[in-house]
Structures are given as structure tokens and as C-alpha cells.
Specification:
By secondary structure, this protein is mainly alpha-helical. It has 2 domains: 9-38 and 102-149, no CATH class; 39-100, Winged helix-like DNA-binding domain superfamily/Winged helix DNA-binding domain (Arc Repressor Mutant, subunit A), CATH 1.10.10. It has helices at 10-32, 40-52, 57-64, 68-80, 102-126, 128-145; strands at residues 84-89, 92-100.
């Protein structure tokens, strides 16, 4: 079989396609589970809010690598659909803290179930041992890239 990707960047293309196939399947399943309006960028926001117990609009913008206006639009979108609420920022009555609602946590929980199922399917396809080796190799590559640690949050690539 001929290599469909010319050049020396096949590895990154294959990683990207593998990631994309998982995300596309995830969002199809989330849609079927009642979360049709959730998009991949929202997942990055949910991750930030879940790990930090909330965030300001500025923190969301910084995390996503977007303008404050774009983050504000996303927050508004998610708030209108019941995924987040804005609460007074502790110690600063003017600021707002964006936090997840039960609906967002339901989406996060469903995401974990779907991703676990998808990973299991991959393990069935390539074998448990090869899947464990793949995970370990990727972990080592990421640690090498980030000075020996694995970052605790994933940021989108726009």
C-alpha cells in the first residue's frame, strides 16, 4: 500500500487523524445522548472549569488562546444552553466566576464513558499489549516534549 501522506510529517498527520476520529465519534454519541450543541472547543472549556472549580472569562480566553470577546461569546452560548452559570467572584463583587452546571457534568460523565469505550475498541483492534505499549510510548514522548512532566490540561490547537 502506498503512503497516502507524502513527506516526513506522516506521524503527526496520523496522530491528528486518530484524534479527530475519536472526537468525531465522541460528538456523534454526545449528540445522541442529548448534548448536540456541545462542540470540541466547549470540551476544552469544560476541562478547565472542572479542574479549577471555575474560571473567569479572561482565564478561559487565555486557556483557549482566543480573544476575551470570543470567550465571552462562548460563555454566553454555554450559559444559554444550561452548561455554565456565572457567579460572583469570591472577594470581588465586580468579577464573575464561570462554573459548570449539572448538565455540563452529565456531558463530562458521558464523555468519559464514550472515550473509554472507544479506547477499548482500539485495544480490541490492535491488542491489549500493543495498546499499553502505545500509551506508554506516547506518555514518554509527551514527557520528553514537556521537560519530564505531562501537562495537566489540554489546550486546543486552532
Amino acid at each position: 500500500m502506498t503512503n497516502p501522506v507524502a513527506g516526513s510529517y506522516e506521524f503527526i498527520v496520523l496522530l491528528s487523524l486518530a484524534f479527530r476520529s475519536q472526537i468525531d465519534t465522541l460528538h456523534l454519541r454526545l449528540s445522541e445522548a442529548g448534548h448536540a450543541e456541545v462542540r470540541p472547543a466547549h470540551g476544552f472549556t469544560f476541562q478547565l472549569l472542572a479542574t479549577n472549580g471555575g474560571a473567569t472569562g479572561n482565564e478561559i480566553a487565555e486557556h483557549l488562546g482566543v480573544t476575551k470577546q470570543a470567550a465571552s461569546q462562548m460563555i454566553e452560548f454555554l450559559e444559554q444552553r444550561g452548561y455554565v452559570v456565572r457567579k460572583p467572584y469570591p472577594g470581588d463583587g465586580r468579577g464573575k466566576l464561570v462554573v459548570l452546571t449539572d448538565k455540563a457534568w452529565d456531558c463530562i460523565n458521558k464523555t468519559e464513558v464514550v472515550l473509554t469505550e472507544l479506547e477499548s475498541k482500539w485495544a480490541e483492534f490492535i491488542g491489549q499489549e500493543r495498546m499499553a505499549d502505545l500509551r506508554l510510548s506516547l506518555r514518554h514522548l509527551v514527557q520528553e516534549a514537556y521537560g519530564g512532566v505531562i501537562p495537566n490540561r489540554l489546550r486546543p490547537v486552532w
